[in-house]
Design goal:
mainly alpha; 1 helix; 0% strand; rod-shaped
Length: 74
Amino acid sequence: MVPSSLIEATIQPLNQLGAQAQLSQAIIAPALWPAIRAAYLGEEVAKLNVENARREVLFGAAQLYYGAAALKKR
């Protein structure tokens, strides 16, 4: 028995590539609840600071107006 032809078969390729990925997301994170509450409080503080600054500017403008009006009457 003599083989009539040769067959080249790749049993294992020279270069094999592979990848793996993992992603995790916490559904409930009790450790973050204080941070979330602090963020809401920070938002409220910022709003109150803006309102206070607005009132201070209006109060300053009123003081200047009434001061100028008082000087004009003299």
